[in-house]
Predict the structure of Topoisomerase.
Amino acid sequence: MSIVILAEKPSQGRAYADAFRNAIKKDGYIEVEDSRFFNKRAFITWGLGHLVELVEPEQYKEEWKRWSMQTLPIFPEQFKFQVAKDKRKQFALVKKLLQSSSGVIVATDCDREVMGSYKNV
């Protein structure tokens, strides 16, 4: 099993890779072999902005398609998520790497965003 280092964006991933020996750029990730830090391989990968987004309001209720003062604020009972259409390839790669890893280092920007459960995405 391997370690996955999750960066916010490609440039951040490349900056992290500069700190390691034997970093090889691949399509959507960087493979690292550096025995100073890892027993086996590590993979640095990244998002491209938000890989997962909230669905549009009308996907909850048709009446929310057109906003009005009567329907605001919009608070669904349970929020639904979807993979952004233009980011499906990177999402699938990140998901595959995470599922095959023994550990994850979250090295994204420290925002107030909360990582939720995206197991249904």
Notes: The CA atoms of residues 9 and 88 lie 15 Å apart. The two ends are 24 Å apart (CA to CA). Residues 2-107 form a domain with the Rossmann fold fold (CATH 3.40.50.140).
